[in-house]
Backbone:
């Protein structure tokens, strides 16, 4: 190995790459413009939609209002609701989003209330539709309050204490430290994003520096120089690794900065629950253990090496950039699937899951972000990643020395 | 000097089995001389030159360039060689100056020496006007000049040209031919491969006719004319490879 030669190749590749619009878009433009754009855009739209949904009265259809005139009147009087005229096709109207919810009061409601068999009041809603869901919540809350008031009045009439109907209250309190809560909620998501970014950051340079060079005819020019192929491939590998790490780091920094910025912005100007929701979304970074973040970066380095060397090796087989794309694109699925597995609820780090590449990394990162440092697993997973990465790099150097690969026709 | 002895290269091909791309080729080229390798497409010229430039490894035989063995002393051989081929392109996103500087550094030259050399080459090749422009915006002539400067930056003793005029316009091709002569006049050892008879006829001191991987005839132009009793290079070539039928058969084998 000749570090002078490696650095010469590396800095040339760096200059070349920084002048390539496609790489600049993947590595710099997407993280610096697109991520903040998406977060602020989504935050703006969400705040607006939520605010509108909250300020707008929920359109409710009362079916069988004559069965409970007093209850119907109370609903009409509540400013949270806008009661629309009763119609047969209320199900269609909900499905078509013409109204948010409908409530059906059965016949004999008044009589039923005073008898032993409790009548069923049915709320019709559109599952998964935000406004309908909010309306259902509001209506359910309203009916529960109305029922509690009826119970309290009935008990008071009979001279009984209210505790007969509610002998005890149920409260809950979180005892897990904030970083564990944050780590558990977002710990699976962060390594997943990091793995994907690591891969996408390395993809374009790996293809351009190998298959792209073959296609443009510069590979043969380079191989004519006295620099040995090991040094050439190491220079190219370091460039691919740099692009991978830069994409990952820049994306994460921009993601964190945008999320925090959006939280403050919408908390200041958005108002209402929308701002609170945005605040919760943006504030999670503070709940994650900072040592965990450092741990994730340390664990991800051998994976970045593995991706850079692996993608260079695969791309080296191709004669053209297009051919390389057809080899590399399916690999994305191979990477995404185990990364997704690590985010699924219920999948924990065990000696079995510790042996599944990428999934193990996702799981151990999730733990580290929650402040759990299981050193045995960390050592095994880090060690295995280093071995995979070293093997990929060795294979890459070996392939670069094969005539049948470099001069494949 | 280049000395090639019984050089052989085989490839495995799915359709044709083991192909002897270069078969037991022996020749020698002295400093101040242009050795022309003449052959049809697929005759084995590029494979032979790639072995001399250490890009490919021979399966048997040997070759020495400026006293260095192509198998055991690859780096020294490449340091002594300037390789220019139709397939050796430029980095489009680098300027001509950066391109030449990069290859100077790859050849282990220090920056001060490279700066001096770039100026000298830009003077000789009249490159100052486009020296700091990116290569992908160049005309064919500018590209060729930059490629020549790239091959010459480390002042190699041996120059290898593999079909350097392929696809070029007449003016650029003439400039290349002039440059090849200049290399010979400067005392360099030059190998020039082509399938263009007229170029070989005009340029080369020694001519080797390669057919189906084998060197079938060798000599000066006058020696070949005397041996085949023809004055026209094309006729000499056809006779040397065994007639038009043999030539057609060799081309058909590649399809």
Residues:
């Amino acid at each position: 190995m000749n570090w002078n030669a490696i650095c010469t190749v590396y800095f040339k590749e760096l200059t070349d790459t920084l002048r390539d619009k496609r790489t600049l878009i993947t590595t710099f433009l997407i993280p610096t413009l697109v991520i903040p754009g998406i977060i602020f855009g989504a935050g703006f739209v969400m705040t607006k939609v939520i605010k509108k949904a909250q300020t707008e009265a929920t359109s409710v259809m009362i079916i069988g209002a004559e069965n409970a005139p007093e209850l119907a009147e109370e609903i009409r009087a509540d400013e949270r609701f806008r009661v629309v005229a009763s119609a047969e096709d209320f199900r269609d109207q909900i499905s078509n989003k013409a109204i948010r919810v409908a409530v059906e009061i059965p016949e004999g409601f008044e009589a039923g209330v005073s008898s032993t068999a409790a009548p069923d009041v049915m709320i019709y809603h559109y599952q998964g539709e935000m406004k309908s869901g909010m309306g259902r919540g509001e209506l359910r809350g309203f009916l529960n309050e109305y029922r509690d008031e009826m119970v309290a009045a009935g008990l008071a009439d009979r001279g009984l204490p209210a505790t007969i109907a509610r002998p005890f209250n149920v409260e809950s309190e979180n005892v897990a430290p904030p970083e564990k809560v944050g780590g558990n909620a977002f710990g699976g998501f962060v390594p997943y994003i990091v793995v994907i970014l690591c891969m996408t950051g390395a993809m374009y340079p790996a293809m351009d520096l190998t298959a792209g060079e073959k296609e443009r005819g510069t590979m043969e020019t380079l191989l004519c120089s006295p620099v040995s192929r090991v040094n050439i491939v190491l220079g190219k590998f370091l460039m691919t690794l740099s692009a991978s790490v830069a994409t990952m780091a820049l994306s994460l920094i921009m993601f964190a900065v945008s999320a925090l910025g959006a939280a403050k912005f919408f908390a200041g100007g958005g108002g209402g629950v929308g701002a609170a929701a945005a605040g919760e979304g943006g504030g999670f970074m503070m709940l994650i253990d900072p040592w965990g973040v450092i741990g994730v970066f340390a664990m991800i380095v051998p994976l970045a090496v593995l991706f850079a060397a692996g993608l260079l090796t695969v791309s080296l087989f191709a004669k053209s950039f297009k051919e390389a794309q057809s080899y590399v694109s399916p690999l994305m699925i191979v990477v995404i699937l185990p990364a997704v597995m690590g985010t699924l609820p219920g999948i924990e780090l065990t000696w079995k899951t510790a042996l599944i590449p990428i999934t193990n990394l996702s799981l151990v990162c999730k733990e580290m972000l929650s402040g759990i440092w299981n050193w045995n697993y960390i050592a095994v997973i880090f060690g295995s990643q280093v071995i995979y990465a070293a093997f990929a790099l060795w294979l890459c150097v070996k392939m670069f020395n094969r005539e049948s690969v470099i001069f494949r026709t | 000097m280049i000395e090639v002895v019984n050089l052989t290269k085989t490839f495995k091909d799915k359709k044709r089995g083991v192909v002897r791309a270069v078969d037991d080729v022996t020749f020698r080229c002295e400093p101040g001389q242009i050795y022309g390798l003449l052959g049809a497409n697929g005759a084995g010229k590029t494979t032979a030159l790639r072995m001399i430039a250490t890009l490919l490894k021979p399966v048997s035989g040997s070759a020495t360039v400026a006293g260095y063995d192509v198998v055991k002393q690859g780096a020294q051989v490449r340091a002594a060689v300037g390789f220019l081929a139709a397939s050796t392109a430029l980095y489009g996103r680098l300027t001509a100056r950066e391109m030449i500087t990069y290859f100077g550094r790859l050849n282990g030259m220090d920056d001060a020496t490279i700066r001096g050399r770039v100026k000298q080459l830009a003077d000789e090749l009249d490159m100052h006007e486009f020296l700091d422009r990116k290569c992908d915006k160049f005309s064919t002539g500018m590209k060729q000049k930059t490629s020549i400067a790239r091959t010459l930056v480390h002042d190699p003793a041996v120059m290898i040209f593999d079909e350097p005029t392929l696809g070029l316009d007449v003016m650029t091709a003439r400039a290349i031919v002039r440059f090849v002569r200049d290399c010979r006049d400067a005392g360099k050892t030059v190998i020039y491969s082509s399938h263009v008879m007229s170029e070989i006829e005009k340029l080369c001191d020694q001519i080797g006719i390669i057919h189906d991987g084998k060197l079938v005839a060798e000599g000066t132009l006058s020696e070949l004319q005397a041996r085949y009793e023809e004055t026209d290079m094309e006729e000499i070539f056809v006779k040397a490879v065994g007639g038009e039928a043999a030539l057609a058969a060799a081309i058909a084998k590649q399809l």
Residues 11 and 17 of chain B are 8 Å apart (CA to CA). The mean pLDDT of chain B is 89. Strands of chain B lie at 2-13, 17-29, 34-38, 60-65, 68-69, 81-85, 158-162, 189-194, 206-211, 214-219.
